[in-house]
Amino acid sequence: MASTAKPPIPDASSSRRAWTVVVLLVLFMMINFMDKAVLGLAGDHIRADLRLTDTEFGSIGSVFFLLFSVSGVAVGFLADRVPVKWLLVGLVAVWSASQLAVALPAAGLLTLMITRVTLGMAEGPAFAMANHTAFSWFPDRERALPSTLLTTGGAFGVALGAPALAVLITNAGWRSAFLVTGLLGVLWIALWLAKGGEGGYSARAAAADGPRVPYLRLITRGTVLGGLAAGFAAYWTMAVAITWLPQYLQRVHGMELERASVIAAATQVVGIVVMLSIGYASTRMTRAGRSSRAALGYLGGAAVVLSGAAMLLVTRSGGGAAFILVLMVAYTFGNSFFGLMQAAAAELAPVRQRGAVLGTVTALASLAGALGPVLSGAIVDAAGTAEAGFRNAFDLGAALMIVGGLLAAAFVRPARDRAALDAARRPAAAPAH
């Protein structure tokens, strides 16, 4: 019989190391999102320099996701066999090479297309692998906050990086932003090799994990399917915002790039507060004995629905304070679901299969990123005006968010699904004689 002993409570030194690793992983996610955001921030400059239509530019945003999902699944399965410390080094090395290649003076449209594919291939597994690493330092009930912190890493990357990158783009050309983000990746690798690593919770839990569960059975549980519905919608919105929001602010509201980047950054600062608050609330709920369904499904689903409702108002609120308010709600609350989705999937999956499950869940949800930017570009092109086109594109995202959030609230039930999986794994009782 497998041991059921609980992992020992970590001492102060291991706790400090755990939070040091979390800080490094937050920096990892910051660079990840700065890499993504460069394209949207430099969009007008790139379109003018390379003479692109909206549909063509949207295609550049979408090719980023061409291998995003495939690599997410592949690296997720690899993480159950290879030390994730070295997987993270490899991923960031590819990010940096992709960004630095675009910084070369001779790089044109073909280089930009190819490097967005390789960047997406390397960033596809990033969030799942960061969570997989962080979870090795914490027990189930403590994971919502670390995972939420990793989600805020993306918001920090945009909040801090967007204004700085906008200044670079305006004063030193759009290629300079790719150069800086590439060099930041190289610096992170050096820090990770010095201080990074995996914790002991995964190894101890794996020893008591029991037999493996068929992956099809894992990913067809209600928790995963409900989480995927909301995660798909949230990824759609995020990918569209990264590619198109700066241009929406410039083309519809007549803002200069610097002002648009400041508004985007301010939105992300609010998002950091929102995501940390929701992650903390989720952790407090589980510590107080509330079910993971309430702390992850109800709370996360409600956040996604709220963002969707606000998104309907983004193109209908005119300008001024009302516009800024709905913009902040639309592009912040839903993002908090990413961390909760990872925590829910991690609670459901056996530890030895966690990397593969997290990678697969993230990969499937992120398929939205391959569709959202290019379809939104086509919608803008097809409309009579940019204002009408952006309204139609954002309304589609709002509908996805509202439906996805409701499905998450209804079906994300990690404890019940894990109990059902455990019961199916137990050997059948011997018949009485």
From TrEMBL:
The annotated topology with respect to the bilayer is: Multi-pass membrane protein
Q: Where is this protein found? A: Cell membrane
Outline the extent of the Major facilitator superfamily (MFS) profile domain: 21-416
Return the Pfam families for the record.
MFS_1 (PF07690)
* Primary subcellular site in the record, as a coarse category: membrane
Q: State the UniProt keywords alphabetically.
A: Membrane, Transmembrane, Transmembrane helix
List the InterPro entries: MFS, MFS_dom, MFS_Na/Anion_cotransporter, MFS_trans_sf
Q: Which PROSITE patterns match?
A: MFS
Query: What domain of life does the native source organism fall in?
Result: Bacteria
Query: Where does the sequence pass through the membrane?
Result: 18-39, 60-79, 85-112, 149-170, 176-194, 222-242, 262-283, 295-314, 320-344, 356-380, 392-412
PANTHER family xrefs: BLR1003 PROTEIN, SOLUTE CARRIER FAMILY 17
**Protein name in UniProt:** MFS transporter
Query: What species is given as this protein's source?
Result: Actinomadura sediminis
